[in-house]
Amino acid sequence: MSFLRKVWAIFARDIAAELHTREMVSAMLVFSVLALLTFSFALDLRGEMARAAAPGVLWVTVAFAGTLGLSRSLAREQQSGCIDGLLLAPVDRSAIFFGKALGNLAFMTVVELVLLPLFAVLFSAPLLRPGVLLVMALGTLGYGAVGTLLAAIAVNTRAREVMLPILLLPLVVPLLIAAVQATAGLVEAATLAEVGGWLRLLVVYDLVIIAVSVLTFGYVVED
Amino acid sequence: MQENNDTVGLVLAVLSSAGVLIALSMVFLYAPREATMGDVQRIFYFHVASAWVGFLGFFVTFMAGIVYLARQERRWDILALSSVEIGLAFIAMAVVSGSLWARPVWGTYWTWEPRLTISAVQLLIYVSYLMLRTVIEDPQQRARFAAVYGIAAFVTVPLSWFAIRWWRSIHPDILTGGGGMAMTVKMVHTLLVSLVAFTLLYFTLLRQRMRLEQASQALAELKEYMWHTAEQSPQRR
Hints:
Chain A has helices at residues 3-21, 23-43, 47-80, 82-88, 93-122, 130-154, 163-171, 173-187, 196-221. By secondary structure, chain A is mostly helical. In chain A, helix 2 (23-43) packs antiparallel against helix 3. Chain A starts with a helix and ends with a helix. Chain B is mostly helical. Chain B has one domain. Chain B is 79% helix and 0% strand. Chain B has helices spanning 7-30, 43-71, 74-106, 114-134, 139-170, 185-232. The two termini of chain B are 33 Å apart. Chain A binds chain B through residues 146, 149-150, 153, 156-159, 163, 166-167, 170-174, 177-178, 181, 197-198, 201, 204-205, 208-209, 212-213, 216, 219-220, 222, and chain B through 69, 121, 124-125, 128, 131-132, 135-137, 141, 144-145, 147-149, 151-153, 155-156, 159-160, 162-164, 166-167, 170.
C-alpha cells in the first residue's frame, strides 16, 4: 500500500467510527453553542459590540471545542486498544499521525461549518466570506496538527484529558493572535492583501508545527 | 561513585558570586541616574539579564530534548529538566521586575508590552512543561514526552514574539511608544556586565541542579536495588 492509501485508511476508519456514534462532533457542537450563549450573556453582546467581539469569541469557541474533540479522539484510540493494533501494523508512524490529524481536522471543520452561519446571524458579522473561510482553514490546520500531537501525549499521562488544554493553549498563542486579527480585519472589510502578514504567519506556523509534529510523533506513540 | 570534590562547580560559584557583586555595585554606583525615570530604571539591568537567562535556559532544554530523542541517554533529560527549572525562576523574576518597573514608569503594574508579554507566555509554557513531567510515572516515557513538548514549545516562541509585536503595533500603546530610553556608554557597560554575571550564575546553578538530580536518581536506584536483594535473599530468623 502506498503512503497516501495508508493515511486514507486510517482517516476513513476514524470517520466510520464517528459516523457510528456521532459522539465527538455532537459533543463539540453542543459545547460550541453553549459557549456562544455564555459569551453573549457574560459580555452582553449586542449590536456593534457583538460585531467587534465576534472574531475573538469565534476563535475561543473553536479552540475550546477543539480540545474537547481532540481529547476524545485519542482517548477512544487508547481505550479500545486500537492504537496498539495500529502500531503493530506495518505502517509508518507519520502515516498514523497524518491519518489521525486528518480525522480531527474533518471533525473540527464540520463543527466550524455549522458555527460560522450561526455566528454570522447571531453577531450580525459578515463571516461567510471566502477570506474568512481561508483563515478558518489555515488556523484549523495548525491547531489540529499540534493538537493531535499533544493529545497523544496527554492521553498517556495520569491526568489524561485534563492535560490537553494546559499543554495546548500556550503553544497556540501565535496561531490564535494571527487568526483573530485576520478574521477581525476581514470582518471590517479589509482585503486579503491587507491581512497578508497575519496569513503568512498562519502559513509559517502551520508548516513549522506540522514538521515538528511529524518528526516527533513516533517518539510519543512508541512503547 | 561520584567524587564530592567538584572543582569546576567551585570555580563557577566563585566566578558568578564575584560577577553578581561587581554587576550589583555597577548598577548602583557606576551607572548614571536615568534622566526621566530616575533610580527605578536601575531595575532594568537585572531585569534584562533575568529575561536573557530564562530564554537561554529554555533554548538549552530545546537542544537537550533533540539530543535526548536521538541518543536516549538519561543525562540529556537531566540537563533539560535542570535548565527548565532555572529558566523558569529567572523568567519569573523578569516578569515580576518588569511589572515593578512598569508601575512607577507607566503607571500600571501590567502593560501588554511585547517583551513583557512574551516573557509571560514563556512562563506559562514551561509551567505546563513541568506539570507534564509530574503526571508521567515511567522515567523513560517522561523523558521522551518532555523532550517532544520542549521542542514543540520552543519553536512556537519566536512565532509568538512576532505575533505579539504585530498585534501591539496595530493597537499602539502610547505609554510604551518610542521604544524606551537612550543608553549612555556607562549604561551599556553595566548591562553587559550584568548579562555576563547572570550567565555565569546560570551555569553555576545548572551544574548544581544536575548534580542534585544525578544524586537523587542514584539514590532511587540504590534503594530499588536493596529492596530487590532483600526480597530475593532467603529470610533468616
